[in-house]
What does this fold into?
Amino acid sequence: MEQEQLVLESLEREILIQRRKLLPIWIRIFIWIFIVFGVLGLLGFIAALFSARFEASFYGLQTNDPSSGVGLFICFLFVFKGFVAAALWTEKDWAVDLGIADAILGIAVCLTVMILPFTGSDFEFSFRLELLLLIPYLIKLLNIRNRWKEAS
It folds into this structure.
């Protein structure tokens, strides 16, 4: 009985290791970066409640007022990315699906920021370099989605 429990616990640990190994090293590095930025985004939300002023920028969105709509959206993006990163690191069943949604949201925001200058009279185009990481991130998550779910 006790041996069976030890074998089951060892198998559970092996499954967890297998899931994390599905993520390439560059995604694992960014996971830790975004866990930190997720905490900072949460602190940004709290600071916005107390009318603190600081600069925030993400995906081409910029603001000096965290309590503005753009500021709150930037804080939300950081918290959301931190949440996704934590879910991937802790190997939740739904983490890859949420990561795919995160990548699609990031790509949509970047494309919107790139297209919006064309709608105004003061037009200045800027290519968002984040796309060079978001697209491979999305492709990698799509590729590992089935293996991730099988490992549960």
